[in-house]
Amino acid sequence: MPPDPATAPPPPRPIEGAGRGWFGVTRNGGDRLAAGVAAGLADRLAVDPVFVRAAFVALAAAGGAGVVAYLLLWAVSAEPGHHGEPRQVALVATPRRAVALWMQTIGALLVLRQAGWWFGDAVVWPVTLAALGSAVIWARSDDRERARLARLAGRLPGDWAASVFSAPISPVRLAVGAGLVTAGMAISLIANASLAQAWSVLVAVAVTTAGLALVLGPFLWRLGRQVGDERRARIRSQERAEMAAHLHDSVLHTLALIQRTPDPRLVASLARGQERELRAWLAGRSQADAARLSTAIDVMAGRVERLHAVPVEAVVVGEAPLDEQGRAIVDAAGEAAANAARHAAAKAVSVYVEVEQDQISAFVRDEGKGFDPDAVPADRRGIAESIVGRMRRHGGSAVITSEPGEGTEVAMQVPRRRP
Amino acid sequence: MSERAPESTGTRPRVFLVDDHRLFLSGVVAELGGRFEIAGMASDVDEAVAQIRATSPDVVLLDVHMPGGGGLAVLEAVKAAQMPDPPRFLALSVSDAPEDVIAVVRAGARGYVTKTIEPEALADAIRRVHAGDAVFSPRLAGFVLDAFASDVAAPGDPDLDQLTAREREVLRLIARGYAYKQVARRLNISIKTVETHVSAVLRKLQLSSRYELTRWASDRRLI
Fold it and tell me: How far apart (Å, rounded) are the C-alpha atoms in residues A123 and A108?
């Protein structure tokens, strides 16, 4: 609870022309409850004003020392506004600074107690605990959390609810603060009653707490649910935006291209390329899957299809990581498919890859015009180097079967490396 | 794939088309109208079920994805109607996701082709389904090999849960892009034998309780 304005007496007439106050404290008129002394001191010390106010309250309980301190500080602090804006505080309020402030406050309380400036343990300690507890609860957290909760609170009925819930409360802080306040109340009750009554007092506190939980429970539950709903809605709208962006970049772009393309072969190739990409996207394939053999084969098929405008049908059975052996067979199969697309004049190229226990095999087949493997001129290094040679270097083999007029099939296999 | 199914009856099969894209329907009619008798068309589940019962076609070309339960709902409703001479189903879809394939094939479709299929191959597939055979695209063959690949013992009938070595060979060749006729020549068996193997695989696909198959289906509450 912030200190009641009545705690601080009405300020006397301000002293004209007061410069920058002692200790560099400038009263903060914008964030004040009474004269702005606590807020100004908080600016100077870089702590949340609530902690400073609570310290004043606790000290006020110690024989009125807090009131005296407040008045003194008011007298020596600078008038706000006369010398430009209140000092900008570069330091960020941290819990550590609040703890330091409160250790000093407790130290001061102990000194006052020793000095006899004291209303009695039964008054000062409960007030101190309650003030600190409420400060913990009411201290602000970061702006984002605050803005979100304030927005939610705006939807709750009643001003009191808005004021209660617009305070950003994390469960831990709430528990710590409530614990301190309750302890203060309990100490006060026990200290002021005889020990025999103490238990019934505790029972009364428990009953009251339960009653409060019943009253506030539905509100808190609804608040939690609304936060969850809002989060889900945000995720949904993000997903929608992502999908829209994807469709824009890919599908709509391709459709626009297709409308401007007179060549039916190019249209078909554009459509197939887009289809392949959309399928991969729908299947949820991402960069993380790029290290898999099946993805690499799909990518290879798509590339050959795009470059040569011939449909490439790829079927992969099993799965393997894309290690050196896997890459070798993907590259060799890619070369074979490109050859088929370039030279065979086939309507389509079939790629079949099977991952077995000990080896990976790949078959690239077309029903094109075929050729006589023995009649290939020696300067055509594509087949010899990229396919047969590559497979051999990786401990595998490649066999090319072709007859003029009968189509061609390249069968490749490499052993798998055991990890 | 251009060879005729040997059991071809001589009369033109009556084909019924189900697809919620009318543009696609008219395209298929233009392609197939000369080779088959078009018994009718429907573009939603209820209309399809009623019309199929009324016209009793030989083959139904069935779109998998439709509002109101899709091709699966049509398959089940027609099965439940217990027609005296039930039609055979060939599923046709833009999707080749394994779960779509498995769902319609397990529900009773005799084959599965994607909408990008060439008209000639589609006509061939319809004839094959009409003759009581199974239609396996390379992709479907690859998927079945994948699903039956692991040697983990599955609960249930071991005969249904394993592919024979020969069936595996046949499926591999289909996955490599060979037509049934070419498969037969390479394995030195008759086309009829190839078709027997493929039909056996289809039966296993429909009846097997293998973990991979049931998981896909149950994930989508199809069983």
Answer: 16
